[in-house]
Design brief:
This protein is α/β, with parallel strands linked by helices. It is built from 5 helices and 8 strands. The protein is about 30% helix and about 25% strand. β7 and β8 form a beta hairpin. It binds adenosine-5'-triphosphate and magnesium ion.
Length: about 170
């Protein structure tokens, strides 16, 4: 069941369960339908939690082939041209704050790029304001729990609209 609680930094505004990889991609797709220019989404969760699978789903609704969105080995930041420009950033291998500064993320967001950051907690203090944080937990091999934390007004609207899609009932 999908649960909704008041906005609070510690309390997720929405929790969605996934029992398969394809459900995770569907959740990503639903998020992608709600992304607009300048949206910043941060993902947290251990290795193999499903951050990239979710991002592939987001990319699908922006018109980006899933094969184009991968867990980067050396590249930390990959731009995509979808319905709106979309930047996929993986913070796992970032070593210094300068590496983040050099990306010019503020300017990109102002210019209408939407941004998804895997391992966002590692570079949170260096980023512009995050709209929605998503914590992914993996209680079993195939199940995942997505907890959504809306951090801005527009993030709150995104999470409410996502809630209305009733993904847990599909
Ligand atoms: N319900 C599920 N949702 C998503 N992935 C699942 C699910 N069940 C199993 N998996 C598996 O979990 C893995 C998720 O991989 P993915 O690359 O998305 O993780 P990640 O969080 O990006 O990891 P990394 O931090 O290494 O980049 C895949 O191997 C996928 O098959
Ligand atoms: Mg990944």
């Amino acid at each position: 069941m999908s649960t909704k609680k008041p906005m609070n930094p510690q309390t997720p505004s929405l929790i969605i369960h996934s029992e398969s990889e394809s459900k995770t991609v569907d959740i990503g797709r639903a998020i992608g339908e709600l992304i607009t220019s300048g949206t910043l989404i941060g993902l947290n969760g251990t290795l193999g939690a499903g951050k990239t699978r979710l991002t592939q789903g987001i990319g699908l609704s922006l018109g980006i082939e899933p094969g184009q969105i991968v867990s980067p080995t050396f590249t930390i930041c990959v731009p995509h041209e979808g319905r709106i420009p979309f930047l996929h950033l993986d913070a796992y291998r970032i070593q210094t704050p300068e590496e983040v500064d050099e990306l010019g993320l503020d300017e990109m967001l102002e210019n209408g790029v939407s941004l998804i950051v895997e391992w966002v907690d590692l570079i949170k203090t260096l980023l512009p304001e995050i709209d929605v944080e998503i914590q992914i937990d993996a209680p079993t091999h195939d199940s995942r729990i997505f907890s959504f934390f809306a951090k801005t007004e527009s993030g709150g609207r995104l999470v409410s609209a996502l809630d209305e899609k009733n993904l847990d009932r599909r």
